[in-house]
Amino acid sequence: MRDFSNAYIFRFSAIMIIIVAVLLSGAAMLLQPLQQKNVEIEKKKSILASINIESTRKNAETLYNKYIKKTLVIDAQGNEIQGENAFKIDMKEEMSKPVNERKLPVYFGVLDNGGQKVIVPLQGKGLWGPIYGYISFNEDYKTVYGATFNHDKETPGLGAEIATRAFQKQFRGKTVFDKNGKFISILVKKGGATPGSPNEVDAISGGTLTSKGLQAMLQDCLSDYVPWFNKQMKK
Description:
Blueprint: H1 6-49, H2 60-67, E1 68-74, H3 91-95, E2 104-110, E3 116-125, E4 130-137, E5 144-151, H4 165-168, E6 187-189, E7 200-202, H5 208-233
Parallel strand pairs: 6-7
Antiparallel strand pairs: 1-2, 2-3, 3-4, 4-5
């Protein structure tokens, strides 16, 4: 067998590490546009789901362009921020900022019957990781038309139930303001919602902490939009 000096082994190892690093870097650069496209498609599917439009990877972009007719970005005082792209705003990043520094996206969906729905994003914390989604409102800016939620790490059969349509459909028709016009959000109630309550839904059985996280997410995110909602209701 041929003996290799330590210097040779070191040089050979260094060259192989550089080659592998270059190959991995190149692969990452080539895949990045595809990964970004996948993220955009999933986001469009979620926005559509909040207005009860089911879509697939193949038709999500077409349906998004058909039903989402307008977007804007507002601040926590309810004022429109010019020159911002609502779709590109990262809500996880925004929710880490002080309230008065947040940029808040708004999407407007128009259904086949001509009805307009207002869609806002949600971002919060579940039991094991982030939870997020979108919720849409009727033209009164207080009655929920639809909602979609998702998660990264919640427990299958328990907290992960927030991503099921059976759980999400409870939100339709609920209101986030009381009869006096005060913002109250939606209570995710352990043990079951009070029959006939306009602002309560059933919590997930066995998923108490995820349910609490979802309730906190609704409260924290929607409260940022209240000044803008109030301005729209006065028009």
